[in-house]
Specification:
The chain has 15 helices and 7 strands. By secondary structure, the chain is α/β, with parallel strands linked by helices.
């Protein structure tokens, strides 16, 4: 059989299923779209979904898909799944591409040796644990523009096929989603409902809280049961969930430690997690900025890792500028990269750290386009 003839034949054989015609053995009133969703979309994706037990009795016996090449099967299943879910939960769209995450962290996250190491080990270890004792809770800390949101988006992209658009991922921005303190009781009800519904749809869910230091203490305490050591809450198991908290708290102490190392003639790569985390925890305990530092999440040690994002230096910002040109397939020279970097503001008196990190880099290169 010619290579190109296989797919039309397969489509012909499966036409009744894809178009909704009745199949032998299907009870009256049962749309074959149900059958095609379970058998076609899931079986072709090799282990994506299990057939619901109640449907096992009416599956046609003795029929199977013709073998016309795995490439055709992949094309067809991807095409079908682009129009609908592959199974009853969002879990069939989970990728958990740790290799891709490691590669992206290595190539695209600049100047963050601690964050790269901690995040990769924490996420990989959690996903490889058959029965976690609790949900994974990571707290990202550092100045604006150092990569916290960038990494959160990266994690979503590699753990879920649909990234931030996945049904398994929810992003909450403090001042946008919870702007009025007087409505905190209503927000708590809404937040609990969204978390519960998401985890019931996807056992492995990802929740991202941006500007966590601005969350009302009542909301933070409402999150405690979901990241604590409970087997289930109202018969829902949250231990496969991942919670990311993004905060500017601790940015000053992280920058001070980094500056002290530079002034002492030591490389920033010599900063260890053990050394910096001690300073970061102390900064959190002494912080008066919002309720995050004094929430039950912190006081009861429910945050698994405090991840420091170091301030970015000239060389790191230059790499961000290069990436911005490459992302848009634009030509560049070393002179242009240096010129864009010179437009950025650097502090303190040594002009060592970018005050904005890599924020606004993608817009600044517009000044240098023909």
């Amino acid at each position: 059989m010619a290579r190109g003839a296989g797919l039309p034949l397969l489509l012909c054989c499966l036409g009744p299923l894809l178009c909704g015609a009745a199949a032998p053995g299907v009870p009256p009133g049962r749309a074959v779209s149900d059958l095609s969703r379970q058998y076609l979309a899931c079986r072709l994706r090799r282990g994506g979904c299990e057939q619901p037990q109640e449907e096992a009795s009416w599956e046609p016996q003795g029929w199977s898909l013709p073998l016309v090449g795995q490439d055709y099967l992949e094309i067809l299943s991807s095409w079908y799944c682009s129009f609908g879910k592959c199974c009853e939960t969002g879990d069939c769209r989970i990728a958990n591409n740790i290799t891709g995450l490691e590669l992206d962290l290595s190539r695209r996250l600049h100047g963050q040796h601690l964050a790269k190491d901690v995040i990769l080990k924490a996420v990989q270890g959690f996903l490889e644990t058959p029965q976690p004792e609790k949900a994974l809770a990571l707290s990202f800390h550092g100045w604006s523009g150092t990569g916290k949101n960038f990494v959160a988006r990266m994690i979503a992209d590699h753990l879920y096929r649909d990234g931030l658009k996945s049904e398994c991922v929810k992003v909450f921005i403090s001042l946008f989603h919870f702007p009025h303190p007087k409505y905190v009781d209503l927000y708590k009800v809404q937040l609990k409902k969204q978390i519960s519904e998401t985890v019931q749809l996807c056992k492995q869910s990802l929740f991202i809280f941006d500007e966590a230091e601005k969350l009302h203490s009542g909301l933070l305490d409402a999150l405690k049961p979901y990241v604590d050591h409970y087997d289930s809450i109202d018969e829902v198991d949250y231990r496969r969930s991942i919670f990311l908290f993004l905060s500017n708290i601790g940015g000053n102490i992280i920058s001070q430690v980094t500056l002290d190392f530079w002034r002492a003639g030591r490389a920033r790569e010599e900063i260890t997690m053990e050394y910096l985390e001690q300073h970061l925890r102390l900064e959190l305990l002494e912080s008066t900025d919002g309720g995050f530092a004094h929430s039950h999440l912190i006081e009861e040690n429910l945050i698994d890792f405090f991840v420091p994002f170091l301030p970015l230096e000239n060389c790191h910002v230059k790499l961000c500028v290069r990436d911005a040109f490459l992302a848009r397939s634009l030509p560049y020279t070393e002179e242009v990269l240096d010129e864009v970097v010179r437009m950025m503001v650097f502090i303190p008196e040594e002009k060592l750290f970018s005050a904005q990190g890599c924020k606004s880099v993608s817009h600044r290169i517009n000044y240098f386009l023909p």
